[in-house]
Model the fold of this input.
Amino acid sequence: MTLTTRPRGTNDIGPGQIELWHKLEEKIRQVTSAYGYQELRTPIFEHTELFQRGIGEATDIVEKEMYTFLDKGKRSLTLRPEGTAPVVRAFVEGKLGAGSLPVKLYYYGPMFRYERPQAGRYRQFTQFGFEVFGSQDPLLDVEAIMLPLELYKSCGLSGFEVQINTIGCPACRPSYRQELVEYFEPQVEKLCASCRDRLHRNPMRLLDCKVESCQEVLSGAPQITRHLCEECSEHFAQVVDYLDALGVDYKLNHRLVRGFDYYTKTVFEVTSSELGAQNAIGAGGRYDGLVEELGGKPTPAVGFAVGVERLLLALQGQDKLKAEAAGPHAYLIHFGGSTKRRAAEVAYFLRSQGLWAELDYLDRSIKAQMKAANKLSSKYAMIFGEEELGRNRVILRNMRDGHEQEMDLQELEQLAKIIGECGQ
Done:
């Protein structure tokens, strides 16, 4: 280990990359605004019990992947591995459901899971997600599918697929879980170690196993359809009907389950053909019991989460969402002394007008400063020559076509307008 090596499973995002992130973040704000969502920011760490109770103690995340530590008060805290449980906690603690319903919230920020790093999967990763509280309307399930699709399309992404399923509710799931146990038990020796361990604790999680040795056994697993209660069956039928009416392409996947215990009824996932085996670029579903489980009043809810790094990989695979490298509006070239002081005054004025102004801090030659302006793709160069400055004027050079003109330094607002218009 050295001081100049970042921790495994983390990334630095610097110039040349961050512009693409900014562009995606702008798309996220545009889409969430169109759907009426407001941003919520929660702490990066929470009490460990929030995730144990919210996600489920028998899940991979809680059992194997959480970054948990004791603080100086011997309290167990965990870096958030996902965004929904913290949002629900904030919803309950802040009494956000006391006003008009439904409540629409979105979040964006870093999450942490201790897992094997690979393309699009890191130990610190960025997640965008949104949650809707206060309604069981199946149309909100559909909205939770359509919002990310709008985001993907606005970025130019194609080749993605929507998969949906229903996993029932606490009233109808027990009989299905029992049928799964009865199906898997005679074939338990064919299952991987993780599936054998989960068989009696959370048999539905076996349906999501990607281990090759389990695939043959899973192919004949019973489906939940005939176990659904009337309410769950009708709810899913309406979800499908809305998807059809709105022209959303989707695929029914009866083996689709989610890795968190809080999901009920509708679950969905979006995959991309650009990502290979780890192809999910977003997933979500309904979780009508989680608010009550975490201490609130019974409140239906539905949400979706997008892995930002995976989405960016998919976009880069299709050469989409390009971010043009930005350059200064003006690079101020001086000869030192009084010309440098006047250039500094003008630079700070331009910056106060929201314009990007750069000047030389290394006392380089005029030729070197011009090279620096070109390298930065500056739109204009402002040359503070001693003779021009004596007349309170400056040479303004358009770096695109080389055209030069003298400008009066007493008309800085007009100068700023010319420079700003070029950057639009």
